[in-house]
């Protein structure tokens, strides 16, 4: 069971992050005309390695003595970063439509790739189970 | 579910852009309206966009926070025969800049198109997600 989980877990995490990134790109595109909006994105490599090492989700404070107060921080990973501005505009908006469109196409492709990988893994498992 | 957030974001943007297109249409239609419902000359209107936090932590949609009237001076046209002319013979015409409105219209329709594409992409990806584990895939 753990073997199944392990092999699918990577792609599941990647798929989740791809979906999150897609929603950030959608936000950037939606706010292309909003004054003072700053385009945001995540560094996918860092986010994925962070998520795989279990650094995603609530961070708990460790309590080593009786008087310590426990606490939970909100999910902080993946770290959201502001995109570098390529051409400044008067209204303070930093959305570059070309960059966003290409990021969207790239992210879409990677999302579909992850799904293809998952399907391939499932087929492999299926044929291993049926033993034909 | 982040991919459903994309649909919410795209539809909020489409809603905002169509409001912007509406004001542009209203401005262009009233480019020569000497008097509005209040008897004063029509003033060009513009929508104000603002980013809005959506359900997902990483998603920000758009909301129209209001409609402002242009503070540009009214266009004064010399036409003493006009019944609305002032004592010097000038008629106050709307401060609509037709060129500005046309560029606004193109910008709004392009932004709308991009968001439609975003919505279609999200839909295609969700449908693809539904095929995970099916026999044919």
In short:
Chain B: This is Flagellar basal-body rod protein FlgC. The complex is a heterodimer of chains A (132) and B (137). Chain A is mainly alpha-helical and 132 residues long.
Largest sheet of chain A: 2 strands, antiparallel
| Silhouette of chain A | flat
Task: Give start-end ranges of low-pLDDT stretches of chain A.
Answer: none
The tally of strands of chain A reads: 4
Main interface pair? Answer: A-B, 30 and 38 residues
Count of separate structural domains of chain A: 1
Radius of gyration of chain B equals 22 Å
Low-confidence stretches of chain B: none
Determine the number of helices of chain A (DSSP H or I, runs of at least 4 residues): 3
- Average pLDDT number of chain B: 91
Q: Going across the major beta sheet of chain A, what is the strand order?
A: 1-4
Percent helix of chain B: 40-55%
Keywords (chain B): Bacterial flagellum, Cell projection, Cilium, Flagellum
Protein name (chain B): Flagellar basal-body rod protein FlgC
Subcellular location (chain B): Bacterial flagellum basal body
InterPro entries (chain B): Flag_bb_rod_N (IPR001444), Flagellar_basal_body_rod_CS (IPR019776), Flg_bb/hook_C_dom (IPR010930), FlgC (IPR006299)
